[in-house]
Inverse folding.
């Protein structure tokens, strides 16, 4: 079957790709566009390692078809830093050792950024529930939650 | 632990990890992120049966499918004789390994590989799997460890002869182990109180988020390159060479960044298959497991069934412990029953101990190491019964532990006499922690438990190259699973006396550094760290020699201090100190490149001990258990990078909480795994857990230059009993089987209600 021609805005850049009907957005990002920062941990929407935003909405890219994305704006981990300048969440994750193996980290960062865009002053419980769809097997979440709370405080200009 | 002034400039600080930026930007390459031009894709056909004879496999239709480049079955792998090799803390047998990567006579578990295909696309490879015809004769199966030991149980291997015991006729028992100290009968005779209980634990998976992945490329001249996520590139090289019949020198393995392992990536699954497919197809072959395949076919850890008997004096002195510990190994021998027995009561100074363990095969995937393999299982029993003993004696459970605590000079039941250890400090740390005295509300309870892991050293090699601009590269050979590159660079910076940011640590492929035993046994910061320290000292020795040459004095007259060569005394002469950068710049003129090396089989791992405190609230209506507060106190020897040490403690505790409350392999009546996904195999999510307070105790290991002990494994040992003891404290109900999931807790609460009402 012929491939679909899809035009999107990817991390702010107009981007075109061809994909088969069964390819997920995650497949497209990784296999067609060579953006391997989004990870596949389960392919069933349970682990959150493939988290991206589509038109500002946080999704598991393994549950979105590439062909569905026509005209949409997609943000991935590769678009999070501004050139050489890390996003405050990325910087704080480094300083607070909020990662160990790092496989879940891109998804966690994308999800956390999405949270802070909606709520710049989340409680610990709000952070925990927002990130409940992002599995991390290494950290026990402690340092991740602290890093998100700390970044939120810094971005508010407090702390 | 508090010193007046810091002993070290870098050790003990919280530096930014060298691999950090790549991991927060998505740049880091993990197993499945690697690709080669001309690469094709491999998929595995897996048995749908728990136990079946493979009568025939017909691959001809699959081979004819356009796009298919190679098909392999067990026929492509030569059989292996019975020969043991080390994998993590366990031993594996090549005879079993060749059968585990590709079923031969029988399929022994749901998910067992029976064939593999490489094709130009994943879709074609999957379509080809459908065309392979396997003629199975389905056999009766056995899943439970106790059932497998019963007479009349289905037998996995008629030819198996158990080690360490006599057996009449075929058996599923692969091995019996026994540890004896003193005279248990005498100890029980001297006891005022004797308690006997049985416990069960479920099989749980390591649950790394990154599925196994490999790219293997075999050239026409027989040279192979393998890129994969593994805990040991040298292990992959050895095992793949053996199974594929290739010389070790013809295989070069480059480890990718690793997305978690916890022991589960200490063996091979896909690597020999991808290599054999590549050899046949003449193309690089990429293989990635799906999450379902990870659950069905990669090693979880054992389920356990055990009976403990403990005797004590009224004053709390434990006089004897007896235990029988049965662990399932999966389809091939090799459960961690030996370390389970070794660790069972190691935190305690008990004069009379008798432990018997059984290694039992069942129709499940072959177990692999999982963080302190075996110890969390035996500790669940030991630390539960000690809690019961404390209640029986009317003693505080920490007081009871302190009274019987192992100390320097204590002879452990598994053999060694402990050198300097810090168990007592962890118990005292728990007693002094505000958590232990905090008030509890209704339906809330508090539990404590301790844990032990012996830790290992092993073969380690490192090179420290001094660069011409005064920076350094540290080359070692252990995949960095949680920050070890940072620790190695910090120790090297300390030795060289240069800025941490001038030291670049890399994890090398198998052709670029001497042999390193895999990342496991909590050995890397300790053992590879020791090799790095010695390699840095070798470089420093050379730097001092270069200074001596420049000053025209004897090398013995030069010392290294704060990154500079200096005259040892005024007798040597008056010379301006020479910095590492100055000496590096002149290296070509003073004798050539400066490269420090070290390679050794490191001994002297310092045992690790921990004591955990857990508060829970139990919902009497649903049986749901919420962990309210958690504190983990651990002797780490010395924390090179405290943040990553805390991270190990927090992560281990979280995995233990998952093991305690939710995680289990659920098999249906046909012996098929019913929950091979993260929705139904529920690991803890962020909203399940509280903050985990990691309290670092530092009793330095006197056999390491910085006092390092292994850190990563101990923290998963205490949680299951700590949670069970907390549930008992909250409800009066003792949970003797894991997981303590809502239906099971509710059933236990319901069963106890009439009894409690009557009391």
């Amino acid at each position: 079957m012929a491939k679909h021609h899809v035009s999107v805005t990817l991390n702010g850049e107009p981007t075109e790709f061809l994909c088969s009907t069964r390819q997920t957005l995650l497949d497209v990002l990784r296999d067609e566009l060579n953006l391997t920062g989004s990870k596949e941990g389960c392919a069933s929407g349970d682990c959150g390692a493939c988290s991206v935003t589509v038109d500002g909405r946080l999704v598991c890219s393994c549950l979105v078809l590439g062909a569905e994305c026509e005209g949409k704006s997609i943000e991935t981990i590769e678009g999070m830093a501004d050139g050489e300048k890390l996003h405050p969440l990325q910087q704080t994750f480094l300083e607070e050792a909020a990662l160990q193996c790092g496989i879940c980290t891109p998804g966690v960062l994308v999800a956390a950024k999405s949270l802070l865009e909606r709520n710049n002053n989340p409680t610990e419980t709000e952070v925990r529930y927002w990130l409940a769809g992002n599995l991390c097997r290494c950290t026990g979440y402690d340092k991740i939650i602290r890093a998100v709370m700390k970044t939120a405080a810094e971005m508010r200009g407090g702390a | 632990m508090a010193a007046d002034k810091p002993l070290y400039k870098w050790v003990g600080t919280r530096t930014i990890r060298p691999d950090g930026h790549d991991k927060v930007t998505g740049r880091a390459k993990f197993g499945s992120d690697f690709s080669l031009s001309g690469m094709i894709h491999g998929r595995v056909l897996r048995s749908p049966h728990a136990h079946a004879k493979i009568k025939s496999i017909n691959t001809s239709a699959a081979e004819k499918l356009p796009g298919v480049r190679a098909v392999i079955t067990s026929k492509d792998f030569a059989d292996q004789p019975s020969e043991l090799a080390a994998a993590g803390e366990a031993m594996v047998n090549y005879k079993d390994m060749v059968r585990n990567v590709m079923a031969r006579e029988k399929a022994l578990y749901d998910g067992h590989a029976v064939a593999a295909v490489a094709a130009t696309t994943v879709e074609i490879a999957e379509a080809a799997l459908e065309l392979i015809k396997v003629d199975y004769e389905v056999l009766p199966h056995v899943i439970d460890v106790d059932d497998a030991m019963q007479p009349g149980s289905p037998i996995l291997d008629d030819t198996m002869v158990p080690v360490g015991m006599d057996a009449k006729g075929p058996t599923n028992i692969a091995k019996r182990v026994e540890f004896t100290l003193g005279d248990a009968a005498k100890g029980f005779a001297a006891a005022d109180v004797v308690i006997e209980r049985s416990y069960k634990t479920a099989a749980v998976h390591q649950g790394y988020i990154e599925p196994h992945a490999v790219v293997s490329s075999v050239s026409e001249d027989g040279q192979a390159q393998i890129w994969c996520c593994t805990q040991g590139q040298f292990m992959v090289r050895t095992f793949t060479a053996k199974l594929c019949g290739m010389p070790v020198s013809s295989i070069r393995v480059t480890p990718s960044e690793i997305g978690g392992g916890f022991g589960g990536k200490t063996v091979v699954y896909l690597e020999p298959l991808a290599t054999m497919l590549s050899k046949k197809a003449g193309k690089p072959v990429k293989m990635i497991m799906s999450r379902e395949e990870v659950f069905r076919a990669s090693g979880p850890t054992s389920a356990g069934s055990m009976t403990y008997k403990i005797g004590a004096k009224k004053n709390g002195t434990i006089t004897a412990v007896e235990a029988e510990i049965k662990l399932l190994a999966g389809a091939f021998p090799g459960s961690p029953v030996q370390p389970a027995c070794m660790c069972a009561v190691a935190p305690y100074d008990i004069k009379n101990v008798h432990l018997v363990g059984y290694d039992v095969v069942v129709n499940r995937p072959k177990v692999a190491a999982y963080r302190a393999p075996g110890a969390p299982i035996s500790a669940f029993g030991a630390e539960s019964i000690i809690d019961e003993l404390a209640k029986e004696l009317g003693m505080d459970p920490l007081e009871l532990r302190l009274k019987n605590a192992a100390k320097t000079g204590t002879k452990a039941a598994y053999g060694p006499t402990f050198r300097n250890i810090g168990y007592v400090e962890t118990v005292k740390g728990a007693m002094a922690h505000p958590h232990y005295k905090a008030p509890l509300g209704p339906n809330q309870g508090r539990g404590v438990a301790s844990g032990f892991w012996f830790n290992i050293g092993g073969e380690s090699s490192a090179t420290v190259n001094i660069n011409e601009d005064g920076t350094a590269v540290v080359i070692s050979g252990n995949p960095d699973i949680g920050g070890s590159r940072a620790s190695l660079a910090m120790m090297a910076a300390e030795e060289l006396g240069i800025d941490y940011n001038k030291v670049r640590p890399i994890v090398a492929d198998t052709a670029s550094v001497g042999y390193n035993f895999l990342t496991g046994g909590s050995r890397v910061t300790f053992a590879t760290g020791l090799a790095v320290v010695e390699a840095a000292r070798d470089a420093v020795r050379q730097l001092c020699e270069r200074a001596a040459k420049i000053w025209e004095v004897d090398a013995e007259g030069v010392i290294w201090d704060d990154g500079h060569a200096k005259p040892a005394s005024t007798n040597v002469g008056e010379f301006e100190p020479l910095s590492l950068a100055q000496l590096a710049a002149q290296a070509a003129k003073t004798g050539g490149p400066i490269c420090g090396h070290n390679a050794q089989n490191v001994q002297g791992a310092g045992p690790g001990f921990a004591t955990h405190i857990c508060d829970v609230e139990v919902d009497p209506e649903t049986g749901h258990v919420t962990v309210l507060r958690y504190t983990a106190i651990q002797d780490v020897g010395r924390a090179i990078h405290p943040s990553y040490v805390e991270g190990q403690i927090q992560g281990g505790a979280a995995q233990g909480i998952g093991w305690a409350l939710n995680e289990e392999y659920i098999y249906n009546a046909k012996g098929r795994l019913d929950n091979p996904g993260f929705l139904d195999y529920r690991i803890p999510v962020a909203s399940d857990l509280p903050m985990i307070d990691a309290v670092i105790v530092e009793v330095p290991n006197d056999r390491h230059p910085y006092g390092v002990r292994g850190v990563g494994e101990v923290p998963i040992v205490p949680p299951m009993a700590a949670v069970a003891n907390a549930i008992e404290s909250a409800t009066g109900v003792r949970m003797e089987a894991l997981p303590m999931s809502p239906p099971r807790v509710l059933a236990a609460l319901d069963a106890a209600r009439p009894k409690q009402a009557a009391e």
Remarks:
- The mean pLDDT of chain A is 97.
- The radius of gyration of chain A is 16 Å.
- Chain A touches chain B through 57 residues (CB under 8 Å).
